[in-house]
Specification:
Elements (H helix, E strand, L loop, with lengths): L5 H14 L5 H7 L16 H16 L1 H13 L7 H24 L4 H28 L4 H24 L1 H8 L19 H35 L1
Helix pairs in contact: 3-7, 4-7, 4-9, 5-6, 5-9, 6-7, 6-8
């Protein structure tokens, strides 16, 4: 049996400790993310920061549900299951992921250079996927002017949410442009003052009812139509 060098033993011990998620400061921070006081959002304040936060929380994010439902209705009217089918439905799922992940991060995580960078990258990816989606749809099914106008809202709202977030966290935008100032700038940490459970729950229900369920129904409908075509 070959003896292990002391340096190798120390390295292995450090590696195991470093890989143990229970010792991670990020994990410990998330385990306590509901303990701080909820972020106050005064309803009657005329302060610019409070007004911007209210509009982002109760205007931009809930408004997203309206064009999402309208777009789903247009897909149903033009019988997406009989034209582009699963290909376009999969792109819709991809775009929801590209929009949903940064939204979830903005709602739950501390806004820092890591979060802002991911939000910006997701916005670019969402725009590219939207272009791919429209190119596919216009070649194989009727895309009416109303649907194109709905798409304009769906493309602009992620950028609006990102713009409001940047305005509310101008110091973190500066830190992002400088490549980060502290080691915590590139860690996914919970908000120091989280949003209220009531707000998060209400918004989650709205997104589930107006986005997740309709587009899940669309995907199921497209999958069934594709199955019928294969068996016929």
């Amino acid at each position: 049996m070959v003896p292990t060098a002391p340096g190798a033993i120390d390295a292995q011990r450090f590696w195991r400790q470093d890989m143990d998620l229970r010792h991670s400061p990020v994990v410990r921070a998330w385990q306590q993310w509901r303990r701080p006081r909820d972020l106050p959002v005064p309803a009657r304040s005329f302060d610019t920061e409070d007004a911007n936060r209210r509009f982002l929380m109760y205007g931009v994010l809930p408004l997203w549900c309206v064009p999402a439902v309208a777009d789903w209705i247009m897909h149903r009217r033009t019988r997406i299951e009989d034209t582009t089918g699963m290909r376009e439905s999969a792109l819709h799922a991809l775009m929801m992921t590209e929009a949903g992940v940064p939204v979830a991060m903005g709602l739950l995580a501390k806004v820092n250079p890591l979060v802002l960078s991911l939000m910006g990258g997701a916005a670019v990816a969402h725009g590219a996927t939207a272009l791919w989606d429209v190119s596919l749809a216009t070649d194989e099914r009727e895309v009416r002017p109303v649907e194109q106008h709905i798409h304009s809202f769906l493309e602009v709202l992620p950028l609006a949410a990102l713009a409001f977030t940047c305005c509310l966290h101008a110091d973190q935008v500066r830190a992002t442009l400088r490549g980060g100032v502290t080691p915590d700038d590139w860690k996914l940490l919970p908000k120091e003052n989280p949003l209220s459970v009531a707000y998060l729950g209400g918004l989650g229900l709205a997104i589930g009812a107006c986005v997740a369920l309709p587009y899940a129904e669309e995907m199921v409908r497209c999958a069934r139509a594709a199955g019928k075509r294969k068996t016929s």
